[in-house]
Amino acid sequence: MPTARTSAHPETAAHTAALAETTARPGTGARTDDAADLITGARERIDALDDRIIGLIRERTAVSAVIQEARITSGGRRVNLSREMEVLGHYRDALGKPGTALAMTLLELCRGRV
Ligand SMILES: O=C(O)C(=O)C[C@]1(C(=O)O)C=C[C@@H](O)C=C1
Q: Chorismate mutase domain location, by residue (predicted)?
């Protein structure tokens, strides 16, 4: 008993191949096995890079905390706006406008909301 799909599209090798080319591979959005394999491998590299970035952010937060504690212990304030302008400019110069937004998020992670 043929299914509705096979009765609408006779099961030839060419049809099977064409159907495979137009069917998304699960979770990748790719339409071919080659593209799906490339995406899966590249995503593993991105996950590893993200782990390293998160580790660097944690390291940055710890160094920033040392600075803030030293300044507060000495009688100063937690925040140093002129230094924050330098940090924002550094990221903007390297990454453009989204770099500024990224730096603002990093600063918030490191010294809390102001
Ligand atoms: O460089 C400093 O003085 C810091 O305190 C570090 C840091 C930062 O995380 O980059 C954090 C808070 C300050 O407002 C400025 C910069």
A: 33-114
